[in-house]
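ok so for the tutorial part 2 we go from a plain amino acid sequence to predicted structure tokens. step 1 is just haveing the sequence, like this:
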Amino acid sequence: MLNTKFTTMLDRAQNTTGENQFSVPDDWMQGRTAYGGLVAAMVLKSMRGHVVPERKVRSLFFSFVGPVNSDPFRIQTELLRSGKSVTTVESKLIQNDKICCTALGSFGGDRESKIEIKPIERPELVDPSKALELPYIEGLTPAFTRHFDYRWAVGELPFSGKGGDEIGGWINFREETICLTEEWLIALADAWPTPVLSQLTEPAAASTLTWALGFVHLNRQTCSENDWWAYHCMIDSAERGYAHERSALWDPEGKLALMSHQTTTVFA
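step 2 — the prediction. this is what the tokens look like for a chain of 268 residues:
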């Protein structure tokens, strides 16, 4: 069984530009397509090569145009503008001469400001040791989930038929980690299923159509290995095959790190 480390995938992403091509291994697939969190993380890694390190990623927007299968692909990245404080970058993932994903990234340096609003607090969650551990089951759970350690704490399980509009819990990588960049956080935030699947009693497909992310850059001391990150997701609406959801990720110190809004297609 393959066990391709996430750090290996990020290293390769630096060279998956121009005419250089790369393919996603089976252990990072999600059904017929590559895991979206990995695709997004690789795109961000490509963008960083066009931005000075002093400018942090502030927001990302992804449109998943079509599935990324196991064929080779390349990431085409272009600097759109670099102003006094913000740099904007565009990336396209191209496979078999077709655009499968487009992305816009905004990177900005810190600025003096009179405005400071406290980020949303982490919800109350049962301790990871008391939460439900979700195992990886070959042939049942998506292949990419073998790379994550889950502890389910809020909401009903997918395909339980019990309904609900939220999920939440704890997550970290199974591989050894120390300090996590935003690429790693993207993967953690996208590793969870959409809450609407708890409405169903049998398996059905769901995939992200668009994804907007905002990053909170607080002074962090989070560099200990494989600590638990908290995740929570709420459905705002779901109708006619589409769901709109918002989620957030908090670091092991309980500080907000990432917020996202997704439009998800549900094939049920």
